[in-house]
Design a protein that fits this description.
This protein is of the alpha+beta class and 181 residues long. It has six helices and eight strands. An eight-stranded antiparallel sheet has the order 2-3-4-5-1-6-7-8, sandwiched between helices.
């Protein structure tokens, strides 16, 4: 079973290459971001960054890239793009259904966004990767894709995020400052 970060893009982002994705991570302060996920050991961060690779793939089916940050014997993060209109429509409808019954100040913004979605990028992680640098790196790729594709992110907890001024902003999720969920 996998955990997913999905980016619902209103502008295409599927034209990006592996090099583009790596370049999009170039100015991230990974030590600070990792601390936000409870990873305080700088050696862990530096080791992951020294092994960081994003490569084109054709397998598993539907995957376009794999993100590696550990030796090859470990599971990578797979990056998928859904660009076919029927598939995108299905993903939009499924996401809208998941939002039914939720209450949040950002809910209307998320719902309105779906009318503009043209493709969906999805990052597939193993559950163990939610506890290591996998989630940190996948989260930064998702934020980059959201910026390029003017998208909103649905994370592994079904929380919804926008990227504003290069920072993630919670729109729908658990009750936090200013959120009515």
């Amino acid at each position: 079973m996998a955990a997913w970060l999905s980016v619902y893009c209103s502008r295409p982002a599927s034209h990006l290459t592996a090099d583009d994705l790596l370049a999009g991570l170039g100015d991230v302060d990974f030590l600070t971001v990792a601390e936000g996920f409870g990873i305080e050991d700088e050696d862990v961060v530096h080791r992951a960054l020294s092994l960081l690779r994003i490569e084109p793939v054709s397998e598993p089916e539907g995957a376009r890239f794999r993100l590696r940050y550990r030796p090859a014997r470990f599971r990578p993060v797979f990056i998928h793009f859904s660009t076919e209109a029927g598939q995108v429509q299905t993903l939009r409808e499924e996401a809208l259904e998941e939002l039914e019954g939720k209450k949040s100040k950002g809910l209307k913004r998320v719902q309105a966004h779906f009318s503009r979605v043209v493709e969906v990028a999805a990052l597939e992680l193993g559950w163990g990767q939610l506890e290591d640098m996998g989630i940190v790196l996948a989260g930064q790729v998702a934020e980059y894709l959201a910026a390029v594709g003017e998208g909103l992110i649905c994370d592994q907890n079904d929380d919804w995020w926008a990227v504003e001024g290069r920072a993630p902003v919670l729109l729908v999720g658990p009750k936090r400052r200013g959120n009515n969920d």
